[in-house]
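Summary of Year 1 activities. Much of the first year was spent building the evaluation harness for sequence design. The harness presents a backbone, in tokenized form, and records the residue chosen at every position. We chose the following record to illustrate the format because it has been used consistently in internal testing since the harness was completed.
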């Protein structure tokens, strides 16, 4: 069989690892897919940078669009990143000429996924993106193929390795947020712009792709409520532990009678449940289907090895001649889902107020919550000297998000807190 000639645009953390796999694992991969994989061309910004892989026999392109148009490649692999720019232009160029594409770029697909999937479909070629969601966990394959016959009711998980690494390390070591973030960047987990990781946008990119494959709709990034981990403090991590919970950045997509609810935010998950024990750079995804019930997937969510593993799996599919619809359903049928506003979300919450310890303060907190029909399940106040600021921590029963927001606004307006209240949603999966 003729070799599969591969062109890679982007030779950073992921691209260099993919190039290395193709170059060093050629024989083993050929035995699996019945076809030799050949790295024939690459593109990056700096030609002189050592990539740790022999590229002397490989054609170099300064311009990734020119690489996508090269007659020397049969498949184009985009590993540069970014929702537009060179990534979008080169993927579009490859698809326009009927070249299969593999990408790890969730930002690109979250913004332009339907248009790109339609372009691929019109040429009857694959556009594969396993590496874009949850790194080394083959969750796209699981949802699109293994669970393909299920009606998925809910899909959720820990989708950002950088945030999980930061939260776990802060919890274990008490080290400051910025210090641990710098370490995650050094390890190659973080995005080029780490605010995408810590601000929750990277998780949102992945969640809308997961939801699209799970529910059979177009990715709806602008229909996701997004909060990051910037405000999670060691104090909240410790209180969470006292109540039997850990704090994780979650992405949750739920099919409801009124539409799809999609949210990304720090959440408390109970010790002993599948997501609570997922540590470090690990990700985990839970899918709930009508036939299979609940299935849980855990693995490394970022870094060179896990991400290149997913890219290579997509390449093996292409070498084998496998083509599946990008989002599991024909691109022409993908519609924007009806989005349930976050105000309608119902769930329990952890609240932490910093108050001056004086008579009547708890009464004000309770009245503001009661006025919005928010009921308190448990409460904790650590003693200090009267007149000093103290934390008051509460766990509420299930409440409507819109009511909780109004109650917190009333508490701030009543002048009994010295800092903005902290609210962390609790998940009882
Ligand atoms: P990275 O280390 O920053 O590498 C980016 C590469 O793209 C670099 O080699 C850079 O060239 C090249 N590049 C950027 N702009 C270019 C342009 N205009 N023309 C040619 N080359 C260009 O990024 P990464 O971490 O490997 O991530 C790549 C993609 O994988 C992103 O979409 C990311 O979201 C996704 N992803 C990453 C991970 C991870 O753990 N890192 C996991 C899953 C998915 P130079 O080296 O010459 O600067
Ligand atoms: N920056 C991402 C993360 C890379 O930390 O999970 C994997 O998509």
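For this record, the design step produced the sequence shown next.
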């Amino acid at each position: 069989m003729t070799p599969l000639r591969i062109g890679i645009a982007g030779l950073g953390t992921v691209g260099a690892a993919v190039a290395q796999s193709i170059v060093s694992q050629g024989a083993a991969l050929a035995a699996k897919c019945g076809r030799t994989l050949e790295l024939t061309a690459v593109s990056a910004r700096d030609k002189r940078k050592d990539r740790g892989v022999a590229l002397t026999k490989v054609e170099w392109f300064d311009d990734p669009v020119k690489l996508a148009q090269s007659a020397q490649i049969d498949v184009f692999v985009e590993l540069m990143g970014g929702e537009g720019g060179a990534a979008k232009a080169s993927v579009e160029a490859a698809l326009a000429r009927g070249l299969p594409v593999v990408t790890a770029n969730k930002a690109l697909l979250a913004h332009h996924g339907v248009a790109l999937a339609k372009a691929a479909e019109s040429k009857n070629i694959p556009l594969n993106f396993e590496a874009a969601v949850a790194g080394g966990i083959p969750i796209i394959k699981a949802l699109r193929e293994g669970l393909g016959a299920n009606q998925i009711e809910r899909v959720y998980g820990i989708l950002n390795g950088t945030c999980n690494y930061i939260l776990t390390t802060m919890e274990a070591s008490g080290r400051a947020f910025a210090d641990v973030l710098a370490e995650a960047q050094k390890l190659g987990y973080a995005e080029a712009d780490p605010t995408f990781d810590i601000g929750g946008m990277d998780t949102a990119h992945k969640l809308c792709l997961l939801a699209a494959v799970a529910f059979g709709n177009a990715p709806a990034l602008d229909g996701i409520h997004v909060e990051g981990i910037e405000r999670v403090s060691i104090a909240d991590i410790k209180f969470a532990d006292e109540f039997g919970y850990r704090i994780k950045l979650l992405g949750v997509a739920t099919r409801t009678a009124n539409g799809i609810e999609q949210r990304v935010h720090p959440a408390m998950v109970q010790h002993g449940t599948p997501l609570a024990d997922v540590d470090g750079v690990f990700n985990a995804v839970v899918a709930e289907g009508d036939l299979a019930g609940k299935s849980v997937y855990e693995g490394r969510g970022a870094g060179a090895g896990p991400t290149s593993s997913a890219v290579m799996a997509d390449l093996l599919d292409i070498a084998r001649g496998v083509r599946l619809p990008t989002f599991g359903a024909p691109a022409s049928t993908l519609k924007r889902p009806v989005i349930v506003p976050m105000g309608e979300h119902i769930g329990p919450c952890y609240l932490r107020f910093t108050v001056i310890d004086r008579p009547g303060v708890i009464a004000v907190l309770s009245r503001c919550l009661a006025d919005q029909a928010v009921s308190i399940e448990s409460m904790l106040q650590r003693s200090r000297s009267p007149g000093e600021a103290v934390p008051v921590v509460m766990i509420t029963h299930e409440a409507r998000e819109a009511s909780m927001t109004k109650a917190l606004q009333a508490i701030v307006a009543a002048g009994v807190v010295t800092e903005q209240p902290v609210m962390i949603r609790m998940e009882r999966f």
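The chain has three domains: 4-132, 145-300, 343-427. Quantitative recovery figures across the full test set are reported in Table 2.
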